[in-house]
Structure formats: C-alpha cells, structure tokens
C-alpha cells in the first residue's frame, strides 16, 4: 500500500517555481535587448534574492531542503546507481538530483554575479548595477562571460528536464506533481521529517532581499 507523505515545504516549492518564472523572464528579456534590459536586470536581482534565500534555507530550512540531506558522498551515490538506496530512505532529492541542485545554484550564482557587473555594450543605458565599480574593459569581459555562460545553464536545465521526464516515464514518479503539492507516495514507511517554521523562511527571505537591495543601492 502506498503511503503519501509531505516531503517539500512551501518555501522550497515557492522558491522552485518563482525561480523558473524569473529565469524564463531573464531569458526572454535578455534576448530582446533594448529597453527590455531594464526588466532583465530586475529579474536578475530577483534571482539573486532567491539564490541567497536558498543558500540560507539549505542550512537552516526544513530537512529535505538542507544540503546535508541531499549532498552525498561517493559511497551513497554508488548505492543509488546500483539500486540499493530505497526511495523511502532518501525521500527528498536523490543523490544525483542533489548534485544537480548544487550545480544549478552555482551556475546561477555565477550568472547573476557577472550580470551585476555587465555592460549594455549597445547603448550603455542598462548596465549592471555594479558595472560602474570596475573598469569598462573588465565589464565588457564579464559581459561576454555572462552571455556565453548562459549556454551551460541551458544545458543543465535540459539535463534536469530530461531527468524529470525519465522518472515520470520509466520510474512512474511524478516529480513535478510532488514539487507542486509537496507530497510524494512511497512503498514503505518514511521516517518523520523536520519542517522549519514559516516565520524562519520569511525572515530568511527578508534578510536575503535586504542584502541585495543594500548592495545595489549602496553601490549606486
């Protein structure tokens, strides 16, 4: 008999889907150029807030959101690849999924960081909020990195989507539904999971937003 268990907390789910929306917005506004770059910058600053929040939540949030819960060593990864790690023992991200989460966070952090110092080389009307702090030549180098690095992000996104489809087709696991509802079905009993209070998530988000706002406005 299947057991349906709450696995993902609301802050983690909102982070995931808000990041998807802002990433799509960054992609669209970035490819349009021109006055759309104003909104591209806003989306990037929003992603920066989300990433800072996720880093905090990865240490102090609910059990399945913590890095210590899903970032595993080689032995555990080998167990998973050999089918010796039952899902109910790793109800959140599996070891490979955990590595993907870390990779996406790191590449997005790099992308946002370069975007903060990038230049609008066409009109210089919509430079990154910190571009004026460095020499124009360095800013243009970071702009090239910012544009080129996007291809790596899209590759990781494609791998991530392919993994979701693989789990849906071959393992009959609806990962999208789980990230929407927060609940997953298991064949065996799952040990009780810790869920952090919502007020801690709100505090973490407020602090993350405060850091980004202070950084942008303080450098203005």
Automatic annotation (TrEMBL):
Domain (Cytochrome b561 bacterial/Ni-hydrogenase): residue spans on this chain: 7-182
Membrane topology recorded in Swiss-Prot or TrEMBL: Multi-pass membrane protein
UniProt-recorded Gene Ontology molecular function terms: electron transfer activity; heme binding
InterPro entries in alphabetical order: Cyt_b561_bac/Ni-Hgenase, Di-haem_cyt_TM, Hydrogenase_cytochrome
TM region(s), chain numbering: 12-30, 36-57, 96-118, 149-170, 191-217
Keyword Transmembrane recorded: yes
Stored Pfam families: Ni_hydr_CYTB (PF01292)
Gene3D superfamilies linked: Transmembrane di-heme cytochromes, Chain C (1.20.950.20)
Protein's cellular compartments: Cell membrane
One Gene Ontology term from the biological process aspect of the record: respiratory electron transport chain
GO cellular component, one term: plasma membrane
Keywords on record: Cell membrane, Membrane, Transmembrane, Transmembrane helix
Entry keyword Membrane: yes
Protein name: Cytochrome b
Organism classification: Bacteria, Pseudomonadati, Pseudomonadota, Betaproteobacteria, Neisseriales
């Amino acid at each position: 008999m299947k057991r349906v268990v709450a696995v993902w907390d609301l802050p983690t789910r909102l982070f995931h889907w808000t990041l998807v929306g802002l990433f799509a917005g960054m992609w669209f506004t970035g490819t349009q150029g021109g006055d759309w770059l104003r909104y591209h910058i806003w989306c990037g600053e929003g992603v920066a807030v989300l990433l800072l929040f996720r880093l905090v939540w990865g240490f102090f949030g609910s059990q399945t959101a913590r890095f210590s819960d899903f970032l595993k060593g080689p032995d555990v990864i080998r167990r998973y690849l050999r089918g010796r790690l039952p899902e109910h023992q790793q109800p959140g991200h599996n070891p490979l999924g955990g590595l993907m989460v870390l990779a996406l966070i790191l590449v997005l952090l790099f992308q946002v960081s370069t975007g903060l110092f990038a230049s609008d080389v066409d009109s210089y009307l919509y430079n990154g909020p910190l571009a004026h702090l460095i020499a124009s030549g360095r800013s243009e180098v970071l702009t090239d990195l910012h544009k080129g690095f996007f291809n790596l992000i899209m590759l990781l996104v494609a791998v991530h989507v392919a993994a979701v489809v693989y789990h849906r087709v071959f393992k009959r696991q609806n990962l999208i539904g789980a990230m929407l509802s927060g609940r997953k079905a298991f064949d065996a009993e799952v040990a009780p999971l810790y869920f952090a209070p919502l007020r801690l998530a709100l505090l973490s988000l407020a602090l993350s937003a405060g850091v980004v706002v202070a950084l942008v406005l303080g450098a203005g």
